[in-house]
Structure prediction request, 114 residues.
Amino acid sequence: MKYKIKSRIWIEADDNILLGEGRVALLKAIEETGSLSKAAKSIKMSYKKAWSLIDALNSRAQKQVVTTSIGGKGGGGAELTDYGRNLINAFDTINQNCWDFLDQEMKKQLYHDF
Prediction:
């Protein structure tokens, strides 16, 4: 029998969620599409929810995470800042380190002879 452990992490700022898997997925989609509406659509999230998450993220973070430009003839857009990219990398690294640690603990605790 093979056991699996599941866990989810998030980063908080002043007791409010700053980053979690869903927000990171939205940020990555913005990076790929260059648009908040396209990013939201690509991860099956409403534009209103996506806008609300980005607004909260920008206000809770130490620096701006996403910059946006208003639509017009050429259309608007959204872009991650360098700080935003660094946040994604930090979250992904921390998340992977947590999974690695949990996998090691699982092996130590459940796969040895008693």
Notes: Helices lie at 21-33, 36-42, 47-60, 82-110. The beta strands are 11-13, 16-19, 66-69, 77-80. The longest strand covers residues 16-19. The chain has four helices and four strands.
